Amino acid sequence: MFDMLRTIFAFIVDIGVLIFFHELGHYLAARSQGVTVETFSVGFGPALLKYKAKKSGTVWQVSALPLGGYVKMQGWGEEQTKGPARPGSFAAASLGSKAVIVAAGPLANLLLAVVIYAGLFMSTGQVTTQPVLNQIQLGSPAAESHLQAGDRVLAIGDAKIHHFSDLQQIVVEHPDTVLDFTIERAGKDLTLPVTVGETTLDGEKIGHLGVIGTQSALKRLAPGPAIAAAFHETGRQISGWFSGMATLIVHHKGLKDLAGPLGIAEISGQAAALGLVSVISLIAVLSINLGLVNLIPIPILDGGHLLFYLVEFIIRRPVPEQAREAGLRVGVLFILSLVVLVTFNDLTRLGAFAWFSHLL
């Protein structure tokens, strides 16, 4: 019972933080563009808590269903109406202002990840694996190229190697290639030609070396390096997300790995069991995913609205209402299909179908 309550609480906190900052991005952008915001809601359905700001008139509320949120702007959805739009409404805003307001939500999620990573690197430190070859697999390309356990890789070609991940990235990108490794061995610097092997991952050829690095260190960073490292880590996560999407679309692999609310709740509970740092780190990862998913150009998502604005900019007139409605129907159908898929994946991972089959 305690584990279940902890999982539910961690899930609500994680989702609440992500939605709040996403909608805060929309809210701040709308205010900066002179658009009146009528309601700022974390969650859907009946309001549990509500407060109306005297100066702006915005109603801030927490609603019953914590699986989303919204910012209700004056004049939202009235772009196709005839006649002059009300001053201060979303419909009266310029095309550029509308794009800024819509894009601000996903960008706020990406910025949140940078802030979280920077805070973690300054407070608890950044975990880095040193570019030291602790183990060399027998018969591997590394062994055949005369690399030895204990070698520290200083550079590959002209690229300086600071972390083991730098080494991994270069090797993966150069299958079946000879690379010049500059290593430190027994206090001396050596340069060795290393032949990178080749393997296949998800139908794509990648480099293979056959080395293991286990020498990790936790280092606190000063504000400047911490911010730079936070941007680098966020960029790495974004790059990984695009690689995963490419694998999903091109090779149709990874569908079973997609997780929905139940899967996120399970992961949130596992992170909560490990401690506060794990919870905060998970929020950063989820925030990046939420921001990028919302930028996918599917009608109903922020990326879909941006797509409509781009078309409007190109054709110099609003997208016809029939085309908008058709796009929204397709978007809703796609999202519902995705919800069914990820829910099926979640229930399968949780053993619900196996339990039901056993019950029958």
TrEMBL record:
Its cofactor is Zn(2+). It holds the Pfam family PDZ_6. Signal peptide: none annotated. It is a multi-pass membrane protein. Keywords: Hydrolase, Membrane, Metal-binding, Metalloprotease, Protease, Transmembrane, Transmembrane helix, Zinc. It is an enzyme of class 3 (hydrolase). Residues 10-338 form the Peptidase M50 domain. The chain crosses the membrane at residues 7-29, 99-120, 271-290, 296-315, 327-344. GO terms for molecular function: metal ion binding; metalloendopeptidase activity. This is Zinc metalloprotease.
